[in-house]
Amino acid sequence: MVGSTKVRLQKARMPRAVMAIGVALTFVVAACGSSSTPAPSAAATTGATATAAASATTAAGGEVTLRFLFPEYSAKTVDLMTEVVTDFNAANKGTIQIALETAPWDKMHDKLAVSMGSGQAPCVFGYATRWISEFAALNQLAQLDSMLQGGFKDGFIPKLLDAGILGGKTYGIPVAASARLLFYNKDLFAKAGVEAPKTWDDLSNVAKKVANPPTNYGLGVPASGIEVDTFFDYFLWNNGGDILDANGKSMLSQPASVAALQYLVDLVKNGGTEPKPTGFTREQIIEEFKNGQVAMYPTGPWMNAMIKADAPNLQYGFVPFPVNGSTQQATVSVTDSMGISEACANKAEAWKFVEFMYQEKYRQKFDETEGMLPELKAVAASTFFSSAEYKPFVDALQYAKFQPQHPKFEQIQQIMTVAVQKALDGQMTPQQALDEATQKIDAL
Question: Which segments of 228-371 does DSSP mark as H helices, in order?
Fold first, then answer.
């Protein structure tokens, strides 16, 4: 649930940029399974003037129209963004107009890559923060530090704002954020006479005790579809392991990382999860949790709204994800960012829209509606996010970790996914699977 963007290169560097974006797009198409949009070619790329024209147009009266691309988080996203754009356009009639475009999340990377490679990138866009290193390396993202100043900058939660920094430069400001906790079924726990787990030993014991196959199982393990690698991160980080070192080399073959995957494999073998996790997607596990078929699953604050809507009688709670012994607490946090194209000819006007969008009333409504955590301090202090349902997630940001910045992280995620699947299916031992993943990652 939670992308990146940029704009084109200078003409002298264009062939290399288009080639790189084409490679990235080819991979994403393979990872997503399908796409009807071809990768851009060098022949499709135009000069800087054409790019600026595609991102922004100026009417005869001097009114500038800027394209704004935003990802769809839910069926409500379009209405939320339409309200912001409509209000901005009314307030800036005759000078600036924003043209809203949206795209499903699984199409965003492709859409951005194609638009950047063909000189058609929007001036303003939402995207996955983890894509910053990929797009910034191609000079597609405008640096925002000269505009991100004073009270506006100070209004953000620092840790979330820091996620958009690469090499000391800010390329994105947070537009959607999450921190994950372990949801658990209180009725199943009470029936088994157990309490919420705090350590891995607790998790193993509880997962087996609450299980009553085939009626229900302990921990839901999604090992198919998206976020397979992200699910493994809970175990990896709560055992002191990591994905990459400071030089961008794999740490997956390290003892702490291998032990994390071994623990997950053993949990499956010992009946603490559904018997064949590679047959379950994230979406299926969420449905099973709401139906009482799995007793535990780690996810974000949006689950509160989903349970209220789909399973209002479900008795549930949430706690930090268990750690292995004295390992420092960690959880998964994902952010998405707002960015401006480096090729946008009207950056001042684009930034004016960004500042307008980040008014407290708009961010409060967006975060509440989409089930995201607040990016702004003022929203975090609101009654809604101070409630028992949401404050623990805001507090979890203190020990949350972000996935690393790497220009080929999309490929790294796929490599990690395959490694986890091979280990869970018994095709390889955890050591073999992660050794293979390390070789592939370090060869990128």
Answer: 228-237, 255-269, 282-290, 302-310, 347-357, 360-370
Residue 156 identity: F
pLDDT interval class at 2 (50, 70, 90): low
152-178 burial, b for 16+ CB within 10 Å, e for fewer?
eeebbbebbbebbbbeeebbbbbbbbb
C-alpha to C-alpha distance for 436 and 421, rounded to whole angstroms? 13
Residue 43: is its pLDDT beyond 90? Answer: no
Tell me the per-residue pLDDT of 386-432, one tens digit each, with 9 for 90 and over. 999 999 999 999 999 999 999 999 899 999 999 999 999 999 999 99
Q: Are 253 and 312 in contact (CB under 8 A)?
A: no
Angstrom distance (rounded) from CA 51 to CA 343: 7
CA dihedral 366, 370, 371, 375 (to 10 degrees): -40
Residue 381 corresponds to which tokens in the numbers above?
């202090």
Give the separation between CA 428 and CA 436, rounded to whole angstroms.
Answer: 10
Q: What are the structural domains of the chain?
A: 11-177+335-394 (3.40.190.10), 181-320+408-442 (3.40.190.10)
Distance CA 126, CA 109 (A): 11
Check if the beta carbon of residue 237 is closer than 8 Å to that of residue 180.
no
CB atoms within 10 A of CB 429: 15
Chain segment 270-281, per-residue pLDDT in tens? 999 999 999 999
pLDDT at residue 54, as a whole number: 53
* Strands 165-166, 169-170: pairing kind: antiparallel
User: Which token pair is 3?
Assistant: 């992308």
Q: How far is CA 24 from the centre of its chain?
A: 18
Residue 49: CB atoms within 10 Å: 12
Q: Which amino acid is at 21?
A: I
User: Please, are residues 267 and 273 in contact by the beta-carbon 8 Å criterion?
Assistant: yes
Q: Among candidates 116, 159, 153, 100, which has minimal Cα distance to 4?
A: 116
